[in-house]
Amino acid sequence: MNKVWFWIVWGLAFLVTNLSALPIAAFILYGAEADAGIFSVSFMKLIGLFLLMNLITLQMFVAGRKRNKAGFMVGLTVAFLQAASLIVFMSTISTAAVIIAMIVFVAAAVLLVMEIRRRAY
Predict the structure, then answer these.
(1) N or C, where is the chain less crowded by C-beta within 10 Å?
(2) How far apart are CA 62 and CA 50, in angstroms?
(3) What local confidence, expressed as pLDDT, does residue 17 receive?
(4) How many separate domains does the chain show?
C-alpha cells in the first residue's frame, strides 16, 4: 500500500470517526459543572467515548504499519459503518441504531485484538 494513500485514508477515517462522536460528547458535557476538574465523571465519560470511537482507527493504523492491506480495508469498512450508525443514532435515536452501533464497537475491538496478535510478516 502506498504510504501517501495510507495516511490520507487513515486521516479521513480518523476525522470522520471523531466528528461523528462530537455531538454525543457535547451532550455528555452539557450537564457538567463549570468548575468541575478534569477528573470529574463527565470528563471520564468523554475520554471513554473517544477511546471507544478510536478503536477502529487504532486497528487501521496497526494494519497499515504491518502492511496488511486486507485488514486495513476491513477496518475502513467498519469505520464507515461506525460513523453511519452514529449518525443514524443521533438523527433518529432508535433502538436499532443503538444495537448496530454496539455491534460495530464489538467488531472494532475484535479486529484490533486480531490485528495485534497477527504476525507482521
Answers:
(1) C
(2) 18
(3) 87
(4) 1
Amino acid in the structure at residue 13: A
Closest among 86, 76, 26 to 53, alpha carbons compared: 86
Question: DSSP label at 43?
Answer: H
pTM over 0.70: yes
C-alpha cell at 67: 502492511
- Rounded CA-CA distance 72/59 in Å is 8
Residue 8, pLDDT score: 92
Q: Which amino acid, 74?
A: V
Alpha helices in 1-121 (DSSP H): 3-29, 41-53, 55-65, 69-92, 95-117
Domain that holds residue 109: 3-117
On whether the CB atoms of residues 115 and 92 are closer than 8 A, the answer is no
Own/partner pairs, 99-106, CB within 8 angstroms, 24+ separation: 104/78, 105/52, 105/55
